[in-house]
Design goal:
Largest interface: B-C, 36 and 42 residues
Largest sheet of chain B: 7 strands, mixed
Distance between the termini of chain C: 45 Å
Radius of gyration of chain C: 21 Å
CATH architecture of the largest domain in chain C: 3-Layer(aba) Sandwich
Radius of gyration of chain B: 17 Å
Number of strands of chain C: 15
Number of helices of chain C: 14
Number of helices of chain B: 10
CATH architecture of chain B: 3-Layer(aba) Sandwich
CATH topology of the largest domain in chain C: Rossmann fold
Number of strands of chain B: 8
Oligomer: heterotrimer
Strand content of chain C: 15-25%
Helix content of chain B: 25-40%
Helix content of chain C: 40-55%
Structural class of chain C: alpha/beta
Number of domains of chain B: 1
Strand order of the largest sheet of chain B: 3-2-4-5-7-6-8
Number of domains of chain C: 2
Order of helices and strands of chain B: EHEHEHEHHEHHEHEHHE
Largest sheet of chain C: 7 strands, mixed
Chains: A alpha+beta (67), B alpha/beta (251), C alpha/beta (360)
Shape of chain C: globular
Strand content of chain B: 15-25%
Distance between the termini of chain B: 38 Å
CATH superfamily of the largest domain in chain C: Thiamin diphosphate (ThDP)-binding fold, Pyr/PP domains
CATH topology of chain B: Rossmann fold
């Protein structure tokens, strides 16, 4: 049981979390946030293993991990 | 379910002003996490430089000072001598620390000022639009080295950790990188150690982060990590240069 | 109290600063003020203060910025070329509304110049020196006693207005020995009070909950609308200082003055001697001696222009700097003459008297 959440207001769509995720479950949203970024969001929450790699590399501290 | 990773208390809620994929935000987070973990939030203060991270004074949720370009170690010296009960750090980029601020960092380190210096090295001047830095690599093109850095004309990149390591006083000097989650986890250990030593009043601590500048390098953030690993690490090797708290222990 | 000590100006101002509660001093050696830093090196540890010889005047001034940002009484000192190095930090100190005291023991310039006394930094001190719209409060002593007295005045003004204050002395005052009566040391209670001031804005220990503060020692306002507001607030402060802190001395100023002289600092002492000689011979010459050169006593000068005054004579140890402020005050009413002496040389009372007579 693990959950990663991206706060769309902080995310700048840099893609570092997408590259870092070993399960490849993060993608860019089709939606954009107020600043016009396609923010990252998880697409297969059930596969999240709470490894925190996304959290480690996120330069905007936009990610919260729960376990 | 428990939250096992979230925004540290020692960061304000402001969105960072850094470019997408700029690792300044990671460095900020590591410092903030360490401050939280060490319970230092209410006695912490820091000095923001001139550079992309000039607004760092807005991003940490404690009293902060902003300093003239390069002068942060001197400002931090004044602060720590004025309020020794507080813990002080500086946060500086490669122009701030290794160009205009060379005298200030060398002498603060030489005096063994009880401060922690966090030095973000991305081999370029970000805020002013991508000019050459003292740490710019040989043959690297920047807006003020448009034909590539000619080391015969203007010298080679400066390795600050190695330079400071010639001094007697510094207590802890380590170069880390932010170029992968595994590297970041190691960097966090170094930051935590630096601030632990700071809390314990052991002396001058210095962490250099090998970092990226996707915008001015002209690559996307993920490619920037790869480029930095291939090109910067050979010039700025990851190393624990000195750790007086662990003397005699193999690094 | 009441006891007079024969002391060199450089040392007297250092002693006075310590008595005024200064416990942080950062500086770099430079002639002719090295005795000041050496005195501080000896005495600061005795009062458990901090003395630090910095790597440069630049570093020293930035250490001042840091300590001032923590709300403490802090001082630096230098001489002309070193004060030039401090200009960036002074602009930052002013822009961040910080209290600080800077002592300039002027020497001959420009450039490396020489080590003899001069007044060539008047423009630098009063018209900027550093970049941007700001002012240092500038005090110009004319005797070792005044130099010492200005230490506590400077700290009081700095704290009152959250502004840098410069004491504009020169090598003669720095080196000369005169009897000084010092104010007493701050008591323990007074020191405790000093340590509690400025908590509404300075860097200090934090707390959780409603008492949590996020104070910023900063002069950057990237939004021009916000910067405008900030600079206009500075302007308000400067106008308040102008309205309240002007100080000057009137020496034989009366309705029958034939000539009024204007001079500051060491030059004023020499002019006084010349005036005494001339007045003993039946002339009626007066002197206005600005004590604050910023804010400048323009009104005092224009008020001294009674009907009999033939001209104003300005004497400075430079090529003519304060004379511009005198011309502003006089506003064309009477001729303004200037005699300067440069190179670190000092005019004699005879030279001054001859010049006054020439213009009479």
């Amino acid at each position: 049981m693990a959950k990663m959440t991206v706060n769309p207001n902080y995310c700048k769509g840099c893609g570092l979390c997408i590259a870092a995720c070993p399960k490849k479950i993060i993608k860019f949203s089709a939606k954009i946030n107020a600043k016009g970024y396609h923010y990252a969001e998880v697409e297969d929450q059930a596969s999240c293993i709470a490894c925190k790699m996304c959290y480690q590399t996120c330069p905007d501290v936009a990610i919260t991990i729960e376990k | 379910m428990q939250t096992i990773a979230k925004r540290p208390e020692s960061l304000t809620d402001l969105q960072f002003t850094y470019c997408p994929g700029c690792l300044h935000g990671v460095a900020h987070r590591l410092i903030a996490e360490a401050v939280d973990e060490l319970g230092l939030k209410n006695q912490m203060t820091g000095v923001a430089p001139v550079g992309c991270s000039v607004f760092a004074y807005k991003f940490f949720d404690f009293d902060m000072a902003q300093a003239a370009h390069g002068r942060a170690p001197a400002v931090a010296t004044g602060m720590k001598r004025a309020r020794p009960d507080m813990n002080v750090f500086t946060y500086q980029g490669d122009g701030d620390l290794a160009a205009i601020g060379t005298a200030e960092i060398v002498h603060a380190a030489n005096r063994g000022e009880h401060i922690s210096v966090f030095f973000v090295n991305n081999a370029i001047y970000g805020m002013t639009g991508g000019q050459m830095a003292p740490t710019t690599l040989k043959n690297m093109k920047t807006t003020t080295s448009p034909y590539g850095r000619d080391v015969d004309d203007i010298g080679s990149p400066i390795r600050v950790c190695e330079l400071l390591n010639t001094l007697d006083a510094p207590y802890y000097i380590e170069r880390v990188s932010l170029l992968s989650p595994a590297d970041i986890i190691k960097a966090k250990k170094a930051v935590l150690k630096a601030l632990t030593y700071n809390k314990e009043g052991r002396g001058f601590t210095f962490i250099e982060f090998v970092s990226t500048c996707p915008t001015n390098w002209g690559v996307d953030p993920v490619k920037a990590l790869v480029w930095a690993k291939e090109n910067m690490i050979p010039v700025f090797p990851i190393n624990n240069f000195r750790d007086k708290g662990n003397e005699g222990v193999a690094q | 109290m009441g006891e007079k000590i024969l002391m060199k100006g450089n040392e007297a101002v250092a002693e006075a600063a310590i008595r005024a509660g200064c416990r942080l001093y950062f500086a770099y050696p430079i002639t002719p003020q090295s005795e000041l830093i050496e005195y501080m090196a000896k005495m600061m540890p005795k009062v458990k203060g901090t003395f630090l010889q910095a790597e440069s005047e630049v570093a020293a001034a930035n250490m001042v910025y840091g300590a001032a940002g923590c709300g403490k009484r802090v001082m630096t000192s230098s001489s002309s070329p070193g004060v030039s190095l401090k200009m960036e930090a002074i602009s930052y100190i002013a822009g961040a509304n910080l209290p600080a005291v800077i002592v300039n023991v002027q020497r001959g310039g420009p450039g490396l110049g020489d080590i003899q006394p001069a007044q060539g930094d008047y423009f630098q001190a009063t018209k900027g020196g550093g970049h941007g719209d700001y002012h240092c409060i500038v005090l110009a002593p004319s005797s070792v006693q005044e130099f010492a007295d200005m230490a506590s005045d400077a700290f009081d003004l700095a704290d009152k207005y959250r502004n840098p204050v410069m004491i504009l002395a020169d090598g003669l005052l720095g080196q000369m020995m005169e009897p000084v009566e010092f104010k007493p040391y701050k008591t323990e209670e007074e020191m405790v009070e000093l340590s509690k001031q400025h908590f509404d804005w300075c860097i200090h220990q934090n707390e959780d909950g409603p008492g949590h503060h996020h104070n910023e020692i900063n002069s950057l306002e990237i939004d021009p609308n916000v910067l405008e507001k900030h600079v206009l607030e500075l302007d308000k402060k400067y106008k308040t200082i102008e309205a309240n802190e002007i100080k000057y001395e009137e020496y034989n100023i009366n309705e029958d003055n034939e000539v009024v002289c204007v001079a500051f600092g060491t030059a004023a002492r020499i002019v006084k001697s010349a005036i005494d000689d001339l007045n003993a011979q039946g002339k009626n010459i007066g002197l206005i001696r600005p004590i604050t050169v910023w804010p400048y006593p323009y009104d005092a000068i224009s008020k001294a222009l009674n009907k009999k005054v033939k001209c104003i004579n300005v004497f400075e140890l430079n090529l003519g700097q304060m004379v511009e402020d005198v011309r502003l005050a006089v506003n064309g009413k009477v001729p303004v003459h200037f005699m300067g002496k440069v190179g670190g040389l000092v005019f004699t009372p005879e030279e001054v008297a001859a010049d006054i007579m020439k213009n009479l």
